[in-house]
Each structure stands twice: as C-alpha cells, then as structure tokens.
Amino acid sequence: MEWLTRMTAAIDYMEERMTEKLDIAEISKTAYSSPFHFQRMFHMLTGFTVAEYIRNRRLTLAAQELAVSKDKVVDVALKYGYDSPESFSKAFRKAHGITPSDARDSGAGLKAFPRIAFQLTLKGDKEMDYKIVDKPAFTIVGKSIEVSMKEGENFREIPRFWQQSNSDGTVAKLCALAPDKDVLGVCLSSGHHKETFYYAIAIESSADAAGGEFTATPIPALSWAVFTSVGPMPGAIQNVWKRIFGEWFPATGYEHADGPELEVYPPGDTQAENYRCEIWVPIIKKP
Which residues does the UniProt record annotate as the domain HTH araC/xylS-type (predicted)? Predict the structure, then answer.
C-alpha cells in the first residue's frame, strides 16, 4: 500500500542518516508530505514525535557502540549529534539509567529503542462513518496558543486551554459574535518545522469582528472529510483523532490537504455520554 511505502521510506531515510544532521523538511519529502502533516501523522501513529524517535534511536546506537568499541565517549557523542560530553551524558543517563562510561562495563544494563516498522491493521470491530463536504473560504476569529506534540503535551495543554477560555469568558464572547455558529477548535501549522502547532478557539465570523481582543484567520476553500465524535470531552474526540490518522487515512484514497483541521462544538453538555461534535480534516484525492 502506498501509505506504507511512504512511511517506510521516511524511516529508511532517518535510519540511514542517524549520524548526520536531520531536517524535518527533508524527512517529510520522502513521505510526499508537508512537515506539519508528517509530524502530526507520525505522532498520532507512534505516540511520540519525530525528534523523540531520532533521539531515542541515536542513544540506542550510541550505547551499542560504547558497549563493543573502544571509541572515546566524546567521539561517540559528537558522532550522534551532541555538542558536548556533558549534554550527551545527561541524555544517555535519562535513556539508559547509567553513564556512557558505565555502558562499557561487562553486564551493564542498556535499553534498546527499536526501529519502527509500520503496518496496516484492519480493525473491523467499529466502522468509521464520514462524509465529504466542499466548503468555500471563510474567516475565523479567536485566540490561539502554541502547543507541543512532545511526550503528548498537546493532549494535556488543549483541554487546559478550553477550561481557561470557558472560565475567563472567552468562549462566551466568541459565541456572542456569531450566535448562529458553533464554537471551533482549530489546529493550525506553526509555520516552522518544530514539533509544535497552533491551536485556536474560535468562531466563524468576519475579520472586522475581531476587534482588539481576538485574531482573524482566513481559511481557504477546501474539501473536508467530516467525522462525528460521540461521548464526553476530551477523551472521545482524542480517540477519533487517533483513528483518523491511524486507520482512516492509511485505508482510503485520500491525503491530507495541508490545511487547518477543525473541531466543531455545538452547544450542549460536553461531559455527556451522548454529546456529539465533529472533526473536519482537509483532504485531497490521491493522484
């Protein structure tokens, strides 16, 4: 399957260059993807970021070299991208629980972080219903924060952002700008190649409604795959997100269109077992 081929090519590219400077833009090219989408896909599928994968693999390879060779610690540190023995020792101890020097001792316990191998697992226990919607360009107005995918921080930071925005009146003010529109959670590219993205709480409205308190962001005309989440927040929608990247994209003829991703929240009790909201993912048909 093409999806497996692309992700495997990206892993091959990284593995062949573990002693070189790796750039996320070049890695994502091997998967025919944008840096933002590739990092989102990688994180959703594996539970860790591209940078975390590279760091763990380098520390695994470094430990193997220290255990079987007589190379100096400083040379191994430099080989795997560390500027100093001190920074290498700190990362090594965190990963393996011992110092690089201790790794040379007979019987030293080391941890191995294996190379990833992607495979498609077809899960027939639960269908993924969706619809395709073409929507013209529109504008959102709201507030945003930059969140990190490192160690799953985004799954904790975003719920806190919602809690704060509800308690300080931000959500109520946005609803007042467009009473006929649902509140949105919007995932936007950070515009650089770090393992972060911007998450906005917003509402569809005109740019002049932003005033001095909110920021207006144009959303281009796109085709969207729309999925329904049923259940209490944030667990229910987080599970749907994981299934979109882990099951739906690999099994369909669609690719991410490299646009923003939307969460659409109608009024209601977000903690109810039957609360329904939607995820809108921008898509294009594979050529």
Answer: 8-106
* Residue 154 tokens, joined: 């985004």
Q: Which two tokens stand for residue 57?
A: 């693999």
DSSP state of 35: H
How far apart are alpha carbons 260 and 186 in whole angstroms? 7
Domain of residue 152: give its range: 130-285
81 located within any domain: yes
Neighbours of 281 (CB within 10 A): 24
**Mean pLDDT, residues 245-273:** 90
Give me the mean pLDDT over the 74-78 stretch: 95
Would you tell me how many other CB atoms lie within 10 Å of the CB of residue 59?
23
What pLDDT was estimated at residue 255? 87
pTM over 0.70: yes
- In angstroms, the CA 240 to CA 98 distance is 39
CA 51, 57, 61: angle at the middle one, nearest 5? 145
Inter-residue long-range contacts of 57-61, CB under 8 Å, 24+ positions, other chains counted: 57/14, 57/15, 57/18, 57/113, 57/115, 58/18, 59/91, 59/92, 59/95, 59/96, 59/113, 60/95, 60/111, 60/112, 60/113, 60/114, 61/18
Per-residue pLDDT tens digits for 242-253: 889 888 888 888
Residue 169 and residue 82 in one domain: no
Instruction: Report the 10 Å Cβ neighbour count for 272.
Output: 12
The per-residue pLDDT for 121 is: 56
Whether 13 and 63 share a structural domain: yes
Mean pLDDT of 224-228: 96
Q: Are residues 144 and 246 in the same domain?
A: yes
Question: Would residue 112 count as lying in a domain?
Answer: no
